[in-house]
TrEMBL record:
InterPro entries: FAD/NAD-bd_sf, FAD/NAD-binding_dom, FAD/NAD-linked_Rdtase_dimer_sf, Mn/Fe_SOD_N_sf, Pyr_nuc-diS_OxRdtase, Pyr_nucl-diS_OxRdtase_dimer
Domain Pyridine nucleotide-disulphide oxidoreductase dimerisation: from-to ranges: 345-447
Organismal lineage: Bacteria, Pseudomonadati, Pseudomonadota, Gammaproteobacteria, Nevskiales
Signal peptide positions (record): none
Listed cofactors: FAD
GO molecular function: dihydrolipoyl dehydrogenase (NADH) activity
NCBIfam families, alphabetized: PRK06292.1-1
Superkingdom of this protein's organism: Bacteria
Organism for this UniProt entry: Banduia mediterranea
Protein name: Dihydrolipoyl dehydrogenase
Keywords for this protein: FAD, Flavoprotein, Oxidoreductase
Keyword ATP-binding carried by entry: no
Family: Belongs to the class-I pyridine nucleotide-disulfide oxidoreductase family.
EC number(s) reported in the record: 1.8.1.4
Ranges of residues in domain FAD/NAD(P)-binding: 4-321
Length: 475
């Protein structure tokens, strides 16, 4: 078989690449090894947000008392919770599969592909394929310490959680990154006994120490959270997992129904036969590539989405795929595509977001910056709706006056983060952001207070008046 363009992997990145490549040529093959439907719909963004939505509903009942609304403690029907998660998830998967089935059958191959050399792929159905250009869009998989595999079906990662028929009694969540925090808090709020384990004191995507400290205080108050703990290799004990760990010099042990490995994800490149190509690989075995062209060290090979190991996020995978597809289609001419401002959101409660250049990026770049802290505890709208827990750091450039980025744990951070990311991408000055309209009473007024402090700290504005009332109380 011969084709102009072969795309390995029909996830978000591969589908996006296919749609662009196809505009330029009819000689495209989209190769998918699994059931398809994308990680996002099947085992990622969508089912995790469905589980979190159930947890939010339970939490709203528990805190209704604050408003004088008396309720019984919520009774969680685990079977019904998981049924809705799976049914809605299946709907998202079905819609994605319908899209793919609308592609001409001659463009679709159901097989696992592996490089034989720079241009040839061997499929696991025995066929061989020669392609002028190849896009690697193979996604990522959970990275799980090998000895944990002995736990058998008591060891789960995200995929298995969304197959549960009911909620278990207890889960040990190892890793307090994005997946650990999202799923751990959701399960906890759904009545599961959850303990989160972390080697250090990390919280999701945060890097700013002051924001981490604030977030950690909140989560340690709410959940069993073993920070700075050293885990021994978990043992299977009947139908349970026995965990032993030390924390602050003390030894502990506890049994759980499951161990949820939330210990990071790694690009799916190990079974791709990359060693048979002339591609330059980094120390993790991932092809080196250029983020603006998506081109690898061999001109005709491109990489997109989680497979490139850079920013494992849905919108980045879609952009990667689009640019790789456009360039593979246009080959040998390639174009450089500007990337969007950084935007990452973690759907905990309160939500967490990192926008533009977070503190780690600014420090690493040695860029001059000023910062301002912002508490949401007395913020008007946040108090009105009883969601006044949150802290943010805003960063700005003292030379240009431009807004550079933010790290935040805040009520409705998913919306605040978009406003801030759009400001970063528009290269807005902090003073220009402050000229924008702010309604009253809204959570965005909190941002305005933070931006005023930032302007002051950049020596470009007045000392903000404490408890300023120019837009009503709690601005
Ligand atoms: C629990 C969880 C929650 C998430 N939540 C969010 C969120 O809220 N927001 C967000 O932005 N991101 C989220 N993400 C990340 C997001 O899901 C991923 O960044 C995105 O799905 C990656 O898309 P992709 O196309 O790179 O990979 P995938 O969608 O995984 O596609 C890769 C495809 O390649 C196929 N494949 C692999 N190897 C081969 C081969 N050799 N031959 C043929 N086919 C092959 C695989 O079967 C797969 O179908 C979440 C991830 C997880 C795990
Ligand atoms: N809302 C979202 O956008 C969203 C949601 C879920 C996942 N994702 C994507 O999926 C990626 C993977 O998520 P993740 O949470 O698995 O990875 P992560 O890198 O965010 O977190 C992994 C955590 O596991 C810890 N860890 C690693 N090995 C360990 C060990 N042996 N023992 C104890 N702790 C250990 C690490 O210190 C880290 O805190 C994220 O980077 C993110 O891009 C995004």
């Amino acid at each position: 078989m011969k084709t102009e363009i072969a795309i390995i992997g029909a996830g978000t990145a591969g589908l996006s690449a296919y749609r662009q490549a196809r505009k330029r040529t009819d000689s495209v093959l989209l190769i998918e090894a699994g059931p398809g439907g994308t990680t996002c719909a099947r085992a990622g963004c969508m089912p995790s947000k469905l589980l979190i939505a159930a947890a939010d509903a339970a939490h709203a009942v528990r805190v209704a008392d604050v408003f004088g609304v008396r309720t019984e403690p919520p009774r969680i029907d685990g079977v019904a919770v998981m049924r809705r998660v799976r049914e809605e998830r299946d709907r998202f998967v079905r819609l994605t599969l319908e899209d793919i089935e609308a592609f001409p059958a001659r463009h679709r191959i159901s097989a696992h592909a592996r490089f034989v050399d720079d241009h040839r792929l061997r499929l696991d159905d025995g066929r061989e394929l020669e392609a002028e250009r190849i896009i690697i869009a193979t996604g990522s998989s959970p990275s799980i310490p090998e000895p944990w595999r002995a736990l058998g079906d008591r060891l789960v990662a995200n995929e298995q959680v969304f197959e549960w028929r009911s909620l278990p009694e207890s889960v040990a969540v190892v890793g307090t990154g994005v997946i650990g925090l999202e799923l751990g808090q959701a399960l906890h709020r759904l009545g599961v006994r959850v303990r989160l384990f972390d080697k250090g004191r990390s919280v999701g995507l945060l890097k700013d120490q002051a924001v981490i400290d604030y977030a950690l205080r909140l989560f340690e108050d709410e959940m069993l959270w073993s920070a700075e703990s050293e885990l021994e290799t978990p043992q299977r004990d009947g139908d349970q997992v026995l965990l032993r760990w030390t924390q602050g010099g003390q030894s502990h042990q506890e049994r759980f129904d499951y161990l949820l490995a939330a210990t990071g994800r790694r690009p799916n490149v190990s079974r791709l036969g990359l060693e048979n190509t002339g591609l330059k690989l980094d120390k993790h075995g991932v092809p080196e590539f250029d983020r603006q062209t998506l081109r690898c060290s061999l001109d005709h090979i491109f990489i997109a989405g989680d497979a490139d190991g850079e920013l494992p996020l849905l919108h980045e995978a879609a952009d990667d795929g689009r640019f790789a597809g456009l360039n593979a289609g246009r080959y040998p001419e390639v174009r450089r595509y500007p990337r969007r401002a950084g935007l990452q959101i973690l759907f905990s409660d309160p939500q967490i977001a990192v926008v533009g250049a977070g503190s780690a990026v600014l420090e690493a770049a040695g860029r001059p910056y000023r910062e301002a802290g912002l508490s949401f505890e007395n913020q008007g709208r946040s108090r009105v709706i009883n969601r006044n827990r949150g802290f943010a750091k805003l960063y700005g450039c003292p030379h240009s006056g431009r807004f550079l980025g933010a790290e935040l744990i805040a009520p409705h951070a998913e919306h605040l983060a978009h406003l801030l990311a759009w400001s970063v991408q528009q290269k807005l000055k902090v003073s220009t952001m402050l000229d924008m309209p702010f309604y009253h009473p809204v959570i965005e007024e909190g941002l305005r207070s933070g931006l005023r402090s930032l302007l002051r700290n950049m020596q470009m504005g007045e000392e903000p008046v404490p408890g300023c009332m120019d837009c009503g109380p709690g601005g």
